[in-house]
Amino acid sequence: MPYEVKDITLADQGRKNIEWAERQMGALLKVRERFEKEKPFDRSQSRAGAPHHKETAALVHTLIAGGAEVAITSCNPLSTQDDVAAVLAGRRSTDVRCKGRIG
User: Fold this and answer.
1) Please, which residues have CB within 8 angstroms of residue 14's CB and are 6 or more apart in sequence?
2) Beta-carbon contacts of residue 30 (< 8 Å; ≥ 6 apart)
3) 72 — phi, psi (to 5°)?
4) What is the 3-state secondary structure of the chain?
5) What gap in Å lies between CA 99 and CA 55, rounded to an integer?
6) Distance CA 48, CA 63 (A)
7) How many domains does the chain have?
8) Is 103 within the bounds of a domain?
9) What is the model's pLDDT at position 103?
10) Is the pLDDT reported for residue 28 higher than 80?
């Protein structure tokens, strides 16, 4: 999928931040386990707001586990976490349009 992010090299740090968030989100991980088995979305398209935070990325990963193709975009470049956007841009089933912070 195409992507447009400020700095793709931030993905390693973003991955660490998302993993930390996921460890705090036990209920979401249980849903993801179920989605991985059942694939309730079966390539349906989903739109998942703006990846301002690592928690949103955890939700995007869960939708993808369920078989969804996800498109996200930033609505506020001042609050978008560039490292999170870089991680999501690396996902094959995610279309990412996040310019990130200005400057």
Assistant:
1) 54, 57, 81, 82, 83, 84, 85, 86, 87
2) none
3) -135, 155
4) CCEEECCHHHHHHHHHHHHHHHHCCHHHHHHHHHHHHHCCCCCCEEECCCCCCHHHHHHHHHHHHCCCEEEEECCCCCCCCHHHHHHHHCCCCEEEEECCCCC
5) 19
6) 9
7) 1
8) no
9) 37
10) yes
Residue pLDDT, tens place only, 31-80 = 999 999 998 987 666 665 666 688 888 888 888 888 887 777 776 667 77
Q: What is the average pLDDT score of the chain?
A: 79
CA distance 63 to 70: 7
Q: Domain residues for 41?
A: 3-98
Q: What is the structure's pLDDT at 22?
A: 94
Q: Kindly tell me the burial class for residue 66, based on how many C-beta atoms sit within 10 Å of its own C-beta (0-12, 13-18, 19 or more).
A: buried
Which two tokens mark 103?
């400057």
In contact, 24 and 58? CB cutoff 8 Å: no
Mean pLDDT of 3-30: 90
